[in-house]
Design goal:
Layout: E1 8-11, E2 19-23, H1 28-32, H2 34-40, E3 48-54, H3 70-87, E4 92-98, H4 100-104, H5 110-122, E5 126-130, H6 137-150, E6 161-165, E7 179-183, H7 188-196, H8 199-202, H9 208-221, E8 234-239, H10 242-245, H11 251-270
Parallel strand pairs: 2-3, 2-5, 3-4, 5-6
Antiparallel strand pairs: 1-4, 6-8, 7-8
Length: about 270
């Protein structure tokens, strides 16, 4: 497998990859894809691969990390991601180390080529990406590049499922009939542990650990207004599988159709 010269692969074992997450930044996998981590953790015949496309430069920093240069921060964040992969027993970790500018430059095909190479190598059954309503431009760019990469594969070699996950926008707004829910109850400690290693972000001014766990608890509690809670922690995803089954389906049109459905539900409720 040939990747860009800055890329690094960490092999966690010989386990077959069944779940794969393509994320923008170090710590995004642990925020957006708890279900992928949990579904593969210590499960025979299952393995989780994490792909981080960006190099980690440009992140906000404070406290002990306030004076770190971008180059120093990149090394710290890459080390933290490797530790998370070790704790979570990821089968593979790929650090592609592109800058955000490179990822968002439409004329630069290198990020898409790398993602395609990894898809061909690992052949995941389930693929997780950032959801298309995420408000972070780099997250959206990574999601679009991943869809583009999958569409370059023959239909029979594509993942069976494609899910968009929560980071810089939750998915509570999705119609209940369209939410894909993953019950994480009982796995809270594992998910805390893989996220807690990202100290450069948490101690550096962003309490992602509290926010991620709080969102999952909120998802569980607010799932049903007329019934008691059946789970303590829930992750929501958006089913994007249609985008890798029908190549002429526009990602923009697809996500706007979900927004239109929300508009219809609000209108019906108020009328």
């Amino acid at each position: 497998m040939k990747l860009n010269p800055k890329a690094e692969i960490v092999n966690g074992g010989q386990t077959t990859v069944t779940e794969m997450c393509v994320a923008a930044h170090q710590d995004d996998v642990e925020l957006m894809c708890p279900q992928g981590i949990v579904r593969a953790y210590e499960k025979e015949g299952k393995g989780f691969a994490a792909v981080i496309v960006a190099d980690g430069g440009g992140s906000p920093r404070a406290g002990a990390f306030a004076n770190y240069t971008d180059e120093e921060m990149k090394l710290v964040r890459q080390g933290e991601q490797k530790e998370a992969a070790k704790i979570g027993k990821y089968a593979r970790l790929a650090l592609l180390n592109f800058s955000s500018k490179e990822i968002k430059a439409q004329a630069n095909s290198e990020p898409t080529k790398d993602i395609l190479a990894l898809l061909k190598e690992y052949k995941p059954e389930v693929l997780y990406i950032h959801n298309l309503a995420d408000k972070h431009p780099t997250h959206c760019a990574v999601a679009l590049r991943t869809i583009e990469a999958v569409r370059k594969l023959p239909m029979e070699e594509r993942p069976k499922k494609l899910y968009g996950c929560e980071v810089w926008r939750g998915l509570d707004w999705l119609s209940d009939s369209e939410k894909v829910t993953f019950n994480l109850t009982g796995k809270e400690k594992l998910l805390r542990d893989v996220l807690a290693v990202h100290k450069s972000q948490i101690a550096g001014g962003k309490r992602y650990d509290l926010a991620a766990e709080g969102r999952r608890v909120a998802n569980a509690t607010y799932a049903e207004s007329h019934g008691v809670d059946t789970a303590k922690s829930v992750a929501y995803c958006m089913d994007l599988t249609a985008l890798i089954k029908f190549d002429d389906l526009s990602p923009l049109s697809y996500i706007l159709s979900k927004v239109d459905k929300l508009k219809e539900e609000i209108t019906a409720n108020l009328k």
